[in-house]
Task: structure prediction
Amino acid sequence: MFERQEANNIFALGNCIPEEEPIQDQRREAELELVRRVQAGDQYAFRAMLERYQTKVHSIIYGILRNREDTEDIAQQVFTKVYFAIKDFDCRCLVLTWICRIAINECYTHLRKRRLNLVEEPEKTPEHADNLPPVDKTLAQRDFLNKLLARIPEDDRSLLIFKEVEGHSIAELAEMTGMSCSAIKIKLFRARHKLIEVAGRLSLRPACGANC
Result:
């Protein structure tokens, strides 16, 4: 049985260690210049952007899907979307934050499509995973966590993934989103509790098919 306390332990708040402002400013200006060049149609700049961010994008996608072949496919889709959407990027947040949100959304679109294509079978929550081999049990628990994340708002999901999958600090999240450290902590606290509430509801539901 997936316990509420177990869900609560999945995500923990970190400490706020501010980064030096000159470093932030230099990084921000370099990023904005790269965006402007891409928006102007500079193909070399887009290649530089791809090389700069592809490792982070692959890491996020693999952290959610745990499948290398799917990771490659989704990463290509992400950068295709970036290429065509960059003209509308308004620079109010870091381009990395924007690209990572596209990657996260593509992952959950992929997961939804995959579930729709599955033959209907009992949902493998940790409650049903007790008698599975260790590898299958881990996969079942990861699938259950993805179901939880899919049921909370996009902004909360992105923030939790940036913090817990990617390991960003509170200060880094504040820089990425433009919010204060205290605001980030509050949002993370609330997002964790939403996750726990969803976990409680799912753990009480009877096993059902892929469309539940």
Summary: Residues 1-20, 119-126, 207-212 have pLDDT under 50 and may be disordered. The chain has one domain: 4-204.
